[in-house]
Amino acid sequence: MIWLVTGLILFFGVHLVTAARSARASLVARIGEGPYKGLYSLVSLAGFALIVIGMGKAEPVQLWTPPDWGRTLAVWAMPLALILLAASFVPGNLRRITAHPMLWSIALWALLHLIANGDLAGLLLFACFGAYALFAMHSQTARGVRPADRKRPYAYDAATAVAGLLLYWAFFTWHGTLFGPGPSAG
Fold first, then answer.
1. Distance (Å, rounded) from C-alpha 181 to C-alpha 80?
2. Which of 45, 111, 155, 178 has the greatest CB tally within 10 Å of its CB?
3. Where are the domains of the chain?
4. How far is CA 44 from the centre of its chain?
5. pLDDT band at residue 76, thresholds of 50, 70 and 90?
C-alpha cells in the first residue's frame, strides 16, 4: 500500500502546487518556466507510475460489499464518462455545457468505480481522483474558466460520441487484462 500512497501524494501534490497559483508563480520565478514544466512532468509521471505499481501490489483489503447494481451502473454509465473524456480533445458543443469535460469524466469514472468496488486500494485511488477533479473544477472556475460560447458543427459532436464509444469498447474489452476484474452487466 505504501507504493500507492506515495504515488498518490506525488501525483496530487504536484497538481495541487499548480492549483496554488502563487506557489506555482514563485517556483517558476525561481527556476524558470521550462524547468518547472519538466520537473512537473517528471514528478507527475513518477507519481502515476507508483500509483500503477501500487495498485498492482496492493493487498486486497475488502472494506464493504459493493451493491449488486454497482457494476451494472458502471457498465451503463461509463460510456458517458468516456464521451466526456473525448470531448476534452474534440472542440464540440459539449464544451458549451461545461468548461471541464475531462474533469467531469474523471469525477464520474471515480464515482462509478467507488460504487462498484469495496476495497481499500480502490477507495484511495478513486476517492483521490474524484476529489481532485471536483477541486480542480472549482479552482479553474474561480480563476475564470468558462464554457465555450461558440457553436460548433454537429459533426464534431458525432466524432466525440464515436471516439468516446470506441474508448469504452476498448476499456470494456481489455479491462480484465489491464486492470483486474472485468466489468460485467451483472
1. 21
2. 111
3. 1-58, 60-186
4. 13
5. very high
